[in-house]
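go over my protein:
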Amino acid sequence: MIFFILIWSICTVAFFALASCMSKHQKQIFGRELTASKTKLATLVGWVLLIIALVICITHGNLSNMISYWIGALTFSALFVGLCLSYFVHKAKQWVMACILIAILSCITYLI
């Protein structure tokens, strides 16, 4: 279960970063549009985090099973981010910080 929470939280932060690339969501989250360099950075961070989650999955089991596991975590992450950006956009920054904290704690717990 800790492994799923680790992958889910990394993917959730990645999807929040990717959502920050879109001007509509930038206005929702930050109250203004970001500069082009910050938008590119958010895109890069989002994709890198998704790749990191995939690599973690692939290295911890059978390739086909863990890719399916990663896609399942992506699904729950996308649903969560969609829910947050639709109904709880005023608390999006807090959700991101909570997901980062969950990722760190689950990583520590998984490594112990």
The CA atoms of residues 35 and 41 lie 10 Å apart.
